[in-house]
Amino acid sequence: MARTSHRARWWAGLLTIITAVALLTAPAAAASQAGFPPVDGHWADPGPFPVTTEALDAAHTVYRPTILGENGLKHPVIVWGNGTGATPPVYGALLRHLASHGFVVAAADTINAGSGREMLDGAATLIAENGRAGSEYHQKIDVGHVGATGHSQGGGGAIAAGADARISTTVPIEPGPQGRISALHGPMFILGGQADLIVAPPLLVIPRYNQATKIPAIYGELAGATHFTPVGDGGGFRGAITAWFRFWLMGDEQARPVFFGPATSCRLCDDHAWSSVRRNAPAQAIPGS
User: Fold this and answer.
1) Which range marks the domain in which residue 223 is found?
2) Contact, 104 vs 146, CB < 8 A?
3) Which of 34, 166, 173, 195 is 20 to 30 A away from residue 28, measured at CA?
């Protein structure tokens, strides 16, 4: 009887693991039919979409493909939080870059984005506009694929926003202390700068990565990066951020081997531009290409 019970528990555990892996890979597989043009690994280069920048509402600037919904596309959403004292134009080149890859980016027009609420309000506005007849966004937004990212205090805000059920994945960049990693329900790509003396990775970023035990999480530390490297066009962070969002929000299978699979084939793991790359157990369980 004891042996049968043990065997049953073993099979139940194996089934749980298989189910979890299937669920983790399902969002990308489902979204891969959306028809976004491939970029063949050129994540840091401008994408194929011309970009328009305009006010989304009184509290958000939107960076988006100029023509929305072309050939029936539904565009995933990225919400952005600025660092303390900064506004969206400080990061304008990075936000335009993400929009050029087909994302609709809602950037909170606030110098204090740490609560995550202002970022979530941008997502709520786009979701509402997607359902409003006559809106530029009507039926052109992929409301099921929303990512959150931001820098410094805005990185902490991305973690805080990531607790919301509408957020599929988070990319905190050199994040502040806001938000709780334990509240995240989707995968996280948390970024540090090797030469960042303001949000020092050993003290303030790696410990937060270590708290992610139930979700797939990857820590990437950019060699030589300071706290101000993400300003402007995102510097060396830009390509990896783009690849992450293309995989999780668009289902771009070309981006899978950047992050997943054996350490010998994980491209980020072997890229000398990164001084440290760590992947937790749930991330290592996601299959490579």
Assistant:
1) 2-32+42-284
2) no
3) 173
